[in-house]
């Protein structure tokens, strides 16, 4: 509370920049977050005080002016008694030249703050403000024009004017007829046409034009302004060439942004009437000119537009229309292939983590999205012929192979002589070519695994080629990825090569592989293993796991160095991937071939878990490994159930790692339908809930442990799905429901989703008559639970929707309310009415947040 007064005093003292900045920012934060603390009769005094501060501090520092302007804007938005704030501010300050800087700053931030998430002003107040700002918008534009006339070519003032105009465009309240004939628009384009315009001013003008173009996205309702902007932007082509000639990259990037925004705004017009009126295809020419700029950052700006164009044309699916745009896409692809070339003096493999590497990945994605317009096969053949007929330098070859790899999967592999020829030629590449060419050729082979599957005669030469790569330090990981792809697609053909895969897996650490590549190789091996005859699987799985198990045993037998045992995560992750992807087809009644292996491995996993029980990261990997082991053999893991649950519960009492709750949910999913396991699983749930509730009941417990919330409700939901009556008849269910009601306020995506799913599924068990014999009992138990908690739940949900949760969570809340309504409509109507009556009707600034009529309309809409 004292901060209001302190900040005010510091601003009056005006000691130095730091203390004033601190005070101005404090004032802004207080108005944003704690405005409710002030009694209404103090609002006018606060406003007058802030206006006098901004006037007296206007020359101290621009950042202080911005903070105070934000404070004034946030106050104006919340203070309902301050009517027509724009009008009063302009009337008070517009005749004083020295006040102009802060007046324009306030007028710039005011529209920006209207949609601020930190000001919870409510939809009614927001609508009122937007109407108010729209009413005064032409006064603001006229003021800005006067400013320009008075200050002549004062650059700082022009930047402020353009920023302010952009802000009003962004809010979407400017009258387009008024703007179309306004001098300010002319000034804007004049600044952009002059090559002597400074970088900062050029950027501000570009931002403003982009905002204007964005504001008229709905072109048909803004015709006059749309035409002015369209023609204005087309005049900038000469200025763009001038900037290129002067090597002014900042301006080139600005022009490209404007051209892209132009194309995005007129996208639908262009597709609807290409070449006519504002569907003029010169807009695409502008983007292709930009694509010709030697710096790849320029063309990258336009990617989103090309992606949207492709999406639009894909949906319209009109061959004649595709024909009009095809040449543009062909030219784009040509430019992109050139931009993907590495420097001729580049050494080593292509980097995929630097900026250029990320650019190439984006090119690859874009090419996949627009290739249908050109035709994958046609493009693939053209690219191949440039390699076959010419003798291009290595960097051109590498870039062509890179684009071919991007589209290889979209080419139909059936009876395709070009594809088989490419594959034949690539695997014959000599080891003397540039290492980057070999790298990308290996990527291409991996992308062509469908072709190998259709033409098994290539399997041997392809595997030989990839094995050469695997033995080389810089090519090992990319070769491993390609082998993984081939194993995934050619599982049946690869069965004959299983011994070779096993040899690689045994010697995995003798290759220079990234962790991800090593795990990928094991995944490929496991996928092939699952296709072997059942009687061979157990032995081969045991061989495949042996290396990792030996390593874990070795770690357990070592003396812990300096009190820390060595890290087993590499081996746990490798076992996990093997279990995850060894999924043979087992007929009913047959013993699962992996059961024996997993029983043999359990003691090592159990001991590893015990040794590292305090380390969350390692315990998480142990649980992940066990999860896939249980999933792998399903009911065949019954003998592990007792010892596993006992160990989980005992470690969880001391170290409540949330992954134990997740593992519990897997066990309930696998065994919850088995009559003999239900009581044991319920005991597990109760034993895990006690430490969990203690953790979540601490101050900010829910907010600090979202993973625990997520996993607890996954576990509870699995119980509802597998054995609802067991849970509903237990003593623990009341506590779980109370915890769920408290956790509905948590704005963490996964945790909130889990909580809502639990509540929805719980109520649904009393709604869905699936003709099981326990339906009446379930309905009765849900009725009791709702009688106890229904009103509290509905009230809490309405409150969280208004005050706690981001909009993307609302569909989940709607699902819950729907289930309650289906379960008992009359009672739900009463609960909802009570919940709505409890909502605050007015903000602390005196604005009406919700009228009685709005509440009754809302109630009707939800319940009808």
TrEMBL record:
Annotated GO CC locations: cytoplasm; nuclear envelope
Domain Exportin-1/Importin-beta-like: start-end pairs: 62-208
Coiled coil: none
Protein name in UniProt: Transportin-3
Subunit structure, interactors included: Interacts with (GTP-bound) Ran. Interacts with (phosphorylated) SFRS1 and SFRS2; leading to their nuclear import. Interacts with NUP62. Interacts with RBM4. Interacts with CPSF6, promoting its nuclear import.
The protein's role, per its UniProt record: Importin, which transports target proteins into the nucleus. Specifically mediates the nuclear import of splicing factor serine/arginine (SR) proteins, such as RBM4, SFRS1 and SFRS2, by recognizing phosphorylated SR domains. Also mediates the nuclear import of serine/arginine (SR) protein CPSF6, independently of CPSF6 phosphorylation. The nuclear import process is regulated by the small GTPase Ran that partitions between cytoplasm and nucleus in the predominantly GDP- and GTP-bound form, respectively.
Keywords from the named record: Acetylation, Cytoplasm, Nucleus, Phosphoprotein, Protein transport, Transport
A single BP term in Gene Ontology: protein import into nucleus
Location in or out of the cell: Cytoplasm; Nucleus envelope
Keyword Phosphoprotein attributed: yes
InterPro entries: ARM-like, ARM-type_fold, Exportin-1/Importin-b-like, Importin_beta-like_NTR, TPR_TNPO3_IPO13_2nd, TPR_TNPO3_IPO13_3rd, TPR_TNPO3_IPO13_4th
């Amino acid at each position: 509370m004292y901060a209001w007064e302190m900040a005010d005093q510091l601003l009056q003292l005006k000691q130095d920049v730091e203390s004033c900045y601190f005070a101005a920012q404090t004032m802004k934060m207080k108005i944003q977050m704690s405005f409710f603390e002030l009694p209404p009769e103090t609002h006018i005094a606060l406003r007058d005080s802030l206006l006098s501060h901004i006037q007296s501090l206007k020359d101290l520092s621009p950042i202080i002016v911005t903070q105070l302007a934000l404070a004034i804007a946030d106050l104006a938005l919340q203070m309902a008694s301050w009517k027509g704030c724009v009008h009063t501010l302009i009337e008070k300050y517009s005749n004083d030249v020295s006040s102009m800087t802060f007046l324009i700053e306030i007028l710039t931030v005011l529209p920006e703050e209207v949609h601020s998430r930190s000001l919870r002003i409510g939809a009614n107040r927001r609508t009122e403000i937007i109407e108010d700002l729209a009413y005064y918008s032409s006064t603001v534009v006229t003021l800005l024009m006067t400013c320009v006339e008075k200050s002549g070519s004062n650059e700082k003032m022009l930047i402020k004017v353009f920023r302010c105009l952009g802000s009003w465009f962004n809010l979407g309240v400017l009258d387009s007829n008024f703007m179309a004939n306004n001098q300010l628009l002319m000034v804007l384009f004049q600044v952009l046409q002059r090559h002597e315009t400074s970088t900062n001013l050029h950027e501000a003008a570009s931002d403003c034009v982009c905002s204007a173009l964005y504001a008229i996205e709905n072109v048909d309702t803004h015709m006059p302004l749309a035409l002015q902007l369209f023609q204005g932007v087309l005049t900038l082509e000469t200025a763009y060439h001038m900037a290129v000639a002067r090597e002014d990259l900042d301006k080139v990037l600005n022009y490209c942004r404007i051209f892209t925004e132009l194309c995005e705004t007129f996208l639908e017009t262009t597709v609807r009437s290409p070449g006519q009126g504002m569907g003029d295809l010169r807009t695409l020419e502008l983007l292709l000119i930009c694509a010709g700029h030697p710096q790849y950052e320029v063309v990258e700006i336009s990617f989103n537009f090309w992606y949207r164009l492709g999406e639009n044309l894909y949906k319209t699916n009109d061959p004649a229309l595709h024909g009009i745009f095809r040449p543009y896409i062909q030219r784009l692809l040509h430019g992109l292939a050139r931009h993907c070339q590495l420097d001729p003096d580049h050494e080593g493999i292509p980097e995929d983590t630097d900026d250029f590497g990320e650019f190439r990945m984006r090119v690859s994605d874009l090419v996949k999205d627009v290739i249908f317009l050109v035709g994958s096969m046609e493009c693939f053949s053209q690219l191949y012929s440039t390699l076959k007929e010419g003798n291009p330098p290595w960097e051109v070859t590498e870039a062509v192979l890179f684009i071919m790899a991007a589209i290889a999967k979209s080419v139909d592999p059936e009876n395709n002589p070009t594809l088989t020829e490419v594959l034949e030629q690539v695997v014959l590449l000599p080891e003397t070519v540039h290492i980057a060419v070999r790298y990308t050729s290996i990527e291409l082979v991996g992308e062509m695994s469908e072709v190998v599957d259709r033409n098994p005669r290539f399997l041997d030469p392809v595997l030989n080629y990839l094995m050469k790569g695997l033995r080389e330090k810089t090519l090992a990981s990319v070769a491993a990825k390609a082998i993984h792809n081939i194993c995934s697609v050619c599982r049946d053909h690869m069965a004959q090569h299983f011994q070779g895969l096993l040899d690689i897996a045994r010697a995995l650490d003798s290759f220079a592989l990234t962790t991800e590549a090593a795990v990928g190789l094991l995944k490929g091996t496991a996928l092939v293993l699952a296709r072997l005859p059942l009687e061979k699987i157990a032995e081969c799985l045991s061989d495949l796991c042996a290396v990792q198990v030996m390593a874990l045993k070795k770690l357990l037998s070592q003396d812990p160095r300096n009190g820390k045992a060595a890290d087993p995560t590499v081996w746990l992750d490798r076992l996990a991937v093997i279990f995850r992807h060894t999924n043979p087809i087992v007929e009913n009644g047959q013993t699962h071939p992996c059961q024996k292996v997993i029983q043999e491995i359990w003691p090592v996993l159990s001991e590893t878990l015990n040794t590292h029980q305090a380390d969350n990261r390692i315990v998480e990997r142990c649980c992940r490994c066990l999860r896939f082991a249980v999933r792998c053999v399903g009911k065949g893991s019954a003998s592990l159930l007792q010892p596993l649950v006992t160990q989980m519960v005992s470690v969880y009492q001391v170290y409540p790692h949330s992954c134990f709750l997740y593992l519990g949910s897997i066990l309930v999913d696998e065994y919850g339908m088995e009559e003999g396991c239900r009581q044991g699983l319920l005991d597990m749930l109760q034993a895990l809930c006690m430490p969990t509730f203690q953790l979540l009941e601490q101050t900010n417990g829910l907010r600090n442990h979202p993973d625990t919330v997520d996993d607890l409700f996954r576990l509870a939901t699995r119980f509802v799905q597998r054995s609802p009556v067991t849970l509903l008849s237990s003593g623990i269910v009341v506590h779980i429901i109370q915890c769920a009601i408290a956790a509905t306020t948590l704005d963490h995506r996964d945790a909130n989703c889990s909580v809502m799913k639990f509540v929805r599924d719980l109520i649904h068990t009393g709604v869905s008559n699936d003709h099981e014999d326990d339906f009446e009992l379930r309905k009765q138990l849900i009725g009791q639970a709702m009688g106890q908690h229904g009103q509290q739940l509905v009230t809490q949900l309405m409150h969280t929707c208004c005050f706690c949760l981001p909009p993307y969570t609302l569909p989940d809340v709607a699902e819950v309310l729907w289930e309650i309504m289906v379960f008992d409509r009359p009672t739900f109507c009463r609960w909802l009415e009570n919940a709505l009556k409890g909502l605050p009707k007015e903000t602390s600034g005196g604005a009406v947040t919700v009228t009685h009529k709005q509440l009754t309309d809302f109630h009707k809409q939800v319940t009808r």
